[in-house]
Protein: Molybdopterin oxidoreductase family protein
Organism: Streptomyces bikiniensis
Amino acid sequence: MSATDPAAVPGTVPGRPLSLDPSLAPPGSRNFRDAGGIPADRWHADQNEETLVPTHCCFCGVQCGMYLRVDRHGKVFGVEPRNHDINRMRLCPKGINAYQQVNHPDRLTAPLMRDNRDQEFREVSWDEALDRTVAEIRRIQTEYGDDAFGLLGGASLFSEKTYLVGKFARVALKTRHVDYNGRLCMVSAAGANKLAFGIDRAGNPFSDILLTDCLLIAGSNVGECFPVMTQYVWGARDRGATLIVVDPRETAIARTADVHVALKPGTDSAFFNAVLNVVVAEGLTDEAHLAAHTTGWDEVKRTVAEYPPSRAARICGVPEEQIVQVARMFAGADRAMAWHARGIEHHSQGVENCLTVINLCVATGNIGKPGAGYGTITGQGNGQGGREHGQKSDLLPGGRSITNPEHRRQICEIWGIDETELPAAGTSMMEMVWQMQRQEIRGLIGICNNPFVSLPNYATVKNGYDTLQFHAQFDFFLSETAANAHVVFPVTVWAEDEGVMANAEARVVKHNKAQEPPAGVRTDTWVLCELARRLGAGDKFAFPDSRSVFEELRVASAGTVNDYYGITYERLEQTGGIAWPCPTTDHPGTPRLFEDGRSYHPDGKIHLQTVEWHPPMDPYSEEFPLSLTTGRTVAHFLSGNQTRRLAGLVEQTPRPWVEVHPSHGFRNGDPVRVVTRRGSEVFPALVTDAIRPDTVFVPYHWPVPTAANALTIDALDPRSKIPEYKVCAARVEAAERIDEVPAPPTPPGQPAYPEAQVSRTDPLPPTSPQGRGTAERS
């Protein structure tokens, strides 16, 4: 009897085909494989002395469900995909390898300290590291004022920890200078969402993509940056949906599109204004919806009248006919959706780019319905939740504004402080670096970030950090930024603690603890609370664990737009995730917004905004005629501090390269110098006709001397303060020798992990991730 014979499978009916649908569990296993993913006997599904702990991936905003495999000694040793309804048994290369960082030999297991940056680190006790940090905080703030010390958090932290970061900065440090690395990711989308809708999150769940008739993806390399999300795109295609991709590169997802708009970087708002121009001219707007549910439509209509396809075609470098085609395809569909990511957000016009996509969706009535809506794809695992509860410089928990007197009063009451004690709004992450240069900020704590790789214009960043009198960094690996600090605190990885994250759908999911941390390692929560105690604010930070922090977070968010009050750990484990707002413990959550046509503004209207296109901040010239744009690869994540240590991922993508069009005359592997006004670096050429001739692309996961962000410009969007990563003026020229990829920093006396270093020295680029390059490896 074969294994696929139904009679061979207990509980199946003879003669009935065995279902291959991963959403249908075999009989008797539903309790193990349901959406919540909790084993029937609650984490004790032992097979050969193995335990499966249900959790979620630590990387991108899709937040795939997974099981961590734990051996009889309590150590994580593997991973299996989980039939969570986000990912349906699928994991990407990063997810498959994520478990390897838990017991990695590069882990920091003791605090590191040095008196100055000329010295080598030495291992010290926790008391010594904490005492030094507190002494430096007190010295700097006594001499220069409370705001002379800053704090930078991260959007890969659990929401409980992001809540603590904001509270610690304002209550224990008493500084206004707190921000986070989500400033480099989602804030343009956040700004646009708040302006238009009065709420900052995607309007639809991923599952709505399966119902749409036309899907527009703008500035998102879904196939590499969010691989598991591709299943939703394919599902929509399977039922006949058309696909439009707007991207200067023919990415893997663009290659399969009905229409690929390969526009010039930095011209997105002109393109979408022109698309809406055609929609208006051809009478394809939903006038009844606009009249009932919006403000500002007349002004938007007058503005887009100035962007006929002929004008936008010249600005964007695309055919006029393609603009008309996109307008008819999107507006003519019964149900259409638009999703975008960093490609249109990492601009000095990032907020406005997002607003033009919102204008298109709302004007065509594609909002608040199954298969019709608008969303932004979160880059970091907690990119959504990481900005909701107070570590962003202008926000308090629950998405409250720090400049709103009533919001300030509410939080001061919850925190038990006087309203005069709550600092004013601070500045953005990049602005804080400039303040370091000017010695306005003289001390800093960094948590879950690596600005030496992730911030633009590396020379400025390095100078700012070097100017600090004191710098402490929390991390579990010694990042390039931590390697420049005075004190490094070794903290837990995601599998050694529990907490929640909110994915790109605004679905709150729970991560579970799979193993105890190594001796000498503490949670971020413990370190922040201990620092607060030593600073005299311990009564406000009596949190023994994440669960206790989450209970205060629930209360602090109650009654706000970002309401988590009805979400509990128990409900998350039972359901597999709940979309906020969720005001009561019997509320089902809100996976889809605007179903009643109302926004979250007091008047209930969607506030449409006018947008005028302007050129990028780095001007083109004869010396710099090209556009440099940057992005991710499928094998790596953000600054690469985690993924550049995992052998399988390093072997897949060992180094950065420069994608250039064949018209430049290079051959694959040729040393090509990329030059901008910030400097130059040499990469191997990946020659491909899947990129515009006037554009070059470099992935950004590596440090100097192979850092794309040594070349990018630190110009900011005036509203969101996001850097303009996706376009700067550049040129390319032949070079003699490719710049070498450095090994990741390691603790003192420990050599770089050899298995992750072998392919790092390979001088050739990987084969084209688009599948259309001419790369050949011999």
User: Anything to note?
Assistant: The CA atoms of residues 431 and 721 lie 8 Å apart. Confidence is low (pLDDT under 50) at residues 1-42, 770-778.
